[in-house]
Amino acid sequence: MTLEFDDGTEHFLCFECIEALPDAPTAADVEALKG
Asked: In the list 7, 25, 34, 35, which could disulfide-bond 29, CB 3.0-4.6 Å?
């Protein structure tokens, strides 16, 4: 799944990663998954 944020960034995430995000994720939440 690809998430697009208001700042113009796009992130392709697997289902497992999507499940790990909070209900209203931000780009920072996605970046936190990488590290």
From this structure: 25
Q: Sort 26 into a burial class: Cβ within 10 Å, 0-12 / 13-18 / 19+.
A: middle
Tokens read off for 14: 């697997």
Judged by DSSP in three states, 32 sits in helix
pTM (global) more than 0.90: no
Pairing of strands 2-4, 10-12: antiparallel
Q: How confident is the model over 1-35, as pLDDT tens digits?
A: 999 999 999 999 999 999 999 999 999 999 999 87
The residues spanned by each domain of the chain are 2-33
